[in-house]
Specification:
Layout: H1 2-6, H2 11-24, E1 31-34, E2 47-53, E3 71-77, E4 80-86, H3 97-100, H4 102-110, E5 114-123, E6 133-141, H5 142-145, H6 172-184, E7 191-198, H7 207-216, E8 220-222, H8 226-234, E9 238-248, H9 261-285
Parallel strand pairs: 1-4, 1-5, 5-9, 6-7, 7-8
Antiparallel strand pairs: 2-3, 3-4, 5-8, 6-9
The chain binds 1-O-phosphono-alpha-D-ribofuranose.
């Protein structure tokens, strides 16, 4: 099964896509940003944009989810060259896991050194409120427990080692930077940190599942990000990730709450401006990436 599942996403395929993109723009991004559900406005921060629809990029998958525009946007953020995925791919869209993480390898070949991954997530931690921004300090990879890991299959050493370490998956300096920037911007009341758990989706969690995830130490739950973080770390990209808590996971059988994607997108809109300010300020402070 492995050789087939990897076909079409080889080093050469990734290189061909990266070279195609590099031939269309002079922008040489050091930072890559992935916009979560409803957070596509982050890409609009970029100046001097050169944008590509995913359908026009060789080897790229298509966005199929509402709230994920399906555009790769190059541009500058306060003078810093960046590339931004306005829309990401999820396991539940039916793509092989290697395909949904392909953009991380293309980022690497474009010269990206740091990725900022964003997502919308359900809050499991009882101290979290809707609208909180959670800095990811770690993850629980549920599909990975069942063998669905983006690095399964033949390993190409040109990207990274067979058994990459994940105890340092989320860069601690960048977490501290986010905390510092958040404090400066006056976000202390809604800036949290915690562990994100990825599930396959697309169904939202049952009450029993949410209770189980809480016991396992998860603070937030979603259907993305972790696969991208693993592939980015494998090829040596620094990773910073944050979750916007768009709903409280339901853990009480008397609750009338029902998770739904419309609410997820709605909360994204409400916090968009603060998220943009947090991310853009961080980008300007990651000095050594822009030598
Ligand atoms: O993780 P992002 O892409 O932000 O999307 C989140 O929002 C969707 C559910 O509303 C799911 O796809 C979940 O993963």
């Amino acid at each position: 099964m492995f050789p087939e599942s990897n076909s079409g996403y080889s080093y050469e395929d990734c290189k061909a896509t990266a070279d195609w993109l590099l031939a269309q723009t002079d922008i040489r991004p050091a930072v890559g940003v992935v916009c979560g559900s409803g957070l596509g406005g982050l890409a609009d921060m970029l100046k001097d944009q050169v944008a590509f629809n995913y359908k026009d990029i060789p080897n790229f998958p298509q966005s199929t989810v509402h709230g994920h525009a399906g555009r790769l946007v190059f541009g500058t953020l306060k003078g810093r060259p960046c590339v931004c995925m306005q829309g990401r791919f999820h396991l539940y869209e039916g793509y092989p896991i290697q395909k949904i993480t392909l953009p991380m390898r293309i980022f690497k070949l474009l010269g990206v050194e740091t990725v900022i991954l964003t997502n919308a997530a359900g809050g499991l931690n009882q101290d979290f409120k809707v609208g909180d921004i959670m800095i990811m300090k770690d993850h629980l990879n549920m599909p990975g427990f069942a063998g669905n890991n983006p690095l399964a299959g033949p390993n190409d050493e040109r990207f990274g080692v067979r058994f990459p370490c994940m105890s340092d998956a989320y860069d601690r300096e960048l977490q501290q930077l986010a905390m510092d920037v958040g404090q400066e911007l006056g976000y202390a009341d809604f800036l949290k940190e915690g562990v994100y758990c990825v599930l396959g989706g697309p169904s939202f969690e049952t009450i029993a599942e949410c209770r189980m995830l809480q016991k396992l130490g998860a603070d937030a739950v979603g259907m993305s990000t972790v696969h991208e973080a693993i592939v980015a770390r494998h090829c040596g990209i620094r990773v910073f990730a944050l979750s916007l808590i768009t709903n409280q996971a339901v853990t009480d059988y008397d609750s009338e709450e029902k998770a739904n994607h419309e609410e997820v997108l709605q909360i994204g809109k409400l916090r968009a401006e603060q998220l943009e300010r947090l991310v853009s300020t961080m980008v300007t402070r990651i000095e050594h990436n822009f030598a």
